[in-house]
Specification:
This protein is an alpha/beta fold. The chain contains eleven helices and ten strands. Helix 2 packs across helix 3, helix 2 packs antiparallel against helix 11 and helix 7 crosses helix 8. Bound molecules: 3-hydroxy-3-methylglutaryl-coenzyme A and magnesium ion.
């Protein structure tokens, strides 16, 4: 039996893709409900340009409004120093810098080449270190880029190594468009495990093709124990056309239980949080697959 940590990314990766406004109050209620499920890690907000992702513009109000469960880490995405300062002021327990293994995706998502993005992340990592705030790294497009197609495993390993070199405590490997297969995820992991131990890697697998659990299974077999998922399978990336939902948290938690892995989550409360998301979706009365 393995302990699996599920990082709940629904409030950020899930909601960022919603074209229609969602109130800060609804986001706060969602996070509070998730806290009650027993998550040790929740990605609660994003401090990015509001022109690029308007849905995440209220990160400070959301962070201020949530009831923090002792022992839970509430993290936020920070693409640059401006975002980092805002996240720190809002009391983020962890910040995340997010790069990509694809040049085109990097340009479209954060308006920088891979090399430029790493230079932009370095002062964020340094400031966080000075403040004692842990930094998570992300690598997007670990197997397929929506613009460039297949991505070489070595490109993923290079960005992963750079993020660790900067001081990230963990790197989350993003199958941004959910096109991974056991073969492609396995090949990517083989390259990445040459530069980092499994204990410091997380799997972030979108479920576009309904195969994210297969990616999880391959990763668990390689020793990974941390996976990102979103309540109700919310999500996608506004700069990744075709990227549909994240792996559903309930689906992942059930898979863990069926395969004898412990998550420590309250399944009844998880169901209630999922129902809350279903109601929210109904209220929004639209759930576009690809608003970008
Ligand atoms: P830029 O336009 O090159 O930045 O964008 P800039 O420095 O030239 O600034 C332009 C304007 O944005 C300025 O305002 C700045 O003040 C403002 P103006 O003078 O025009 O009024 N600005 C900010 N405002 C608030 N917070 C900030 C910030 N930074 C600049 N932090 C930038 C570069 C990185 C800012 C932009 O491209 C951006 O915000 N991108 C974020 C895109 C994003 O959030 N994508 C989704 C998250 S990644 C993801 O989902 C993938 C993941 O889930 C893993 C996976 O699935 O693969 C993590
Ligand atoms: Mg994502």
């Amino acid at each position: 039996m393995t302990d699996i940590t599920i990082v709940e990314v629904g409030p950020r990766d899930g909601l960022q893709n919603e074209a229609r406004p969602i109130s800060a109050a609804a986001k706060i209620e969602l996070i509070d409900r998730l806290s009650a499920c027993g998550f040790k890690r929740i990605e609660a907000a994003s401090f990015v340009s509001p022109k690029w992702v308007p849905q995440m513009a209220d990160g400070a109000a959301v962070m201020e409004g949530i009831s923090r469960r002792p022992g839970t880490v509430y993290s936020a995405l920070t693409p640059n120093l401006k975002g980092y300062e805002a996240a720190r002021a809002a009391g983020a327990d962890e910040v995340a810098i997010f790069g990509a293994a694809s040049e085109t995706f990097s340009q479209r998502n954060i308006n920088a080449s891979i090399a430029e993005s790493l230079e932009r992340f370095r002062p964020v990592a340094e400031a966080a270190k000075a403040d004692g705030i842990p930094v998570r790294g992300y690598v997007s497009c670990i197997v397929v880029c929506p613009y460039e197609g297949a991505i070489a495993p070595d490109a993923v390993a290079r960005v992963t190594a750079a993020l660790f070199e900067m001081g990230c405590h963990e790197v989350s490997l993003g199958d941004t468009v959910g096109r991974g297969t056991p073969t492609s995820i396995g090949a990517m992991l083989e390259a990445v495990l040459d530069v980092a131990p499994a204990s410091r890697l997380a799997g972030h697998y979108h479920d576009t093709n309904g195969r994210a659990l297969e990616s999880v299974a391959v990763s668990v077999a390689q020793g990974l124990q941390v996976f990102d998922s979103a309540i109700g399978g919310l999500g996608g990336c506004p700069y990744a056309p075709g990227a549909k939902g994240n792996l559903s948290t309930t689906k992942l938690a059930n898979w863990c239980a069926e395969n004898g892995h412990r998550t420590g989550l309250d399944m009844e409360r998880l169901k209630q949080a999922e129902n809350f998301v279903a109601d929210l979706r109904r209220d929004l009365d639209a759930f576009p697959d690809d608003p970008a």
